[in-house]
Amino acid sequence: MLGKLRRLVWTLRDGQKDLSRLNRTQQALLWSELRREYRSLIESERFRDPKRLNGFGYSLYSQADEDGILAEIFRRIGPGPRTFVEFGCGNGLENNSHALLLDGWRGLWIDADAAQLSRAERRFGDLVASERLHIKGALIDKGNINALIGAVFQGEIDLLSVDIDGNDFHILQQIDCIAPRVIVVEYNARKGPAIDWVMAYNDHHSWDGTDYFGASLKAYELLLKERGYALVGCSISGVNAFFVRDELVGADLFSAPFTAENHYEPQRKHLRMGIHTAHGRSYGPWQRAETLLESGA
Question: Which pTM value belongs to this model?
Fold first, then answer.
């Protein structure tokens, strides 16, 4: 059985995701195998440098290790206004800002999928009602992005997260209504660390599941270096890149040089299952223990 599961790991590495034929025992064994691969990678020589971020990674509601990486970045650079903007947020149960909401942050979600946003609005209705979370449905383009964001936030925010599987580079290039301290953007790992590649802008683009999307890590390095940001790391799954504003980087906080060649991670989407916990993700009414203790309830 172990040999069969190892073959399945290889199919996952190739992008095949259908696990429906596995029973619970097989799924548990597969999780154990992927977890072992993930831990072996994290404990390798490359990631022993404490200035690198991957050793701090974990997933609460992120796709892979992004939640832990973001927590470590903000621990190093200190707190800001505790606000975020994320587009490509889905239904809210798997993204880069759900965990931040649980920690008291305020933010804006934007997505073009009406069905996903409808679920998010129902599920996170308490946060929407309290105006801690704003949710907007829109097909983002170069002409509307600043108006969409500017209606909620202007000036400095803590986090901008970009993941729309297409025109990401072009949209990011247009944003000037906010000044994020940290930017997370999905990069196209298929293009490697050194190739400067950007998908041609297309208002009608819809991702077809292939490697024709977004931009390479080198392209984002060049764009954001010009904007005053340093590339400080990438997710272990080879999906998201993390940039910090230059004045916040400091001399010894992150691993230099801040280049794609230093921080590139190849695509390892199959490792997500080895990072996640076994429980399914959800959201419902909740309170802080501190509040309950103060009220005596």
Answer: 0.91
**Per-residue pLDDT at 14 exceeds 90:** no
Asked whether 220 and 47 are in contact (CB, 8 A), the reply is: no
Dihedral over Cα of 104, 283, 239, 151: its sign: negative
pLDDT at position 2? 47
∠ CA 133-137-141 to the nearest 5 degrees? 115
CA 83 from centroid of its chain's CA atoms = 15
State the DSSP H helix or E strand holding residue 126, giving kind and residue range, or none if neither: helix 125-129
Q: Which residues of 102-114 are buried (b: 16+ CB within 10 A; e: fewer)?
A: eeebbbbbbbeee
Q: Which of 67, 65, 74, 49 is nearest to 248 (CA)?
A: 74
Banded pLDDT at 196 (limits 50, 70, 90):
very high
Report how far residue 226's alpha carbon sits from residue 64's, in angstroms, rounded to the nearest whole number.
28
R_g over Cα of the chain: 19
According to DSSP, the β-strands at 240-245 and 229-234 are antiparallel
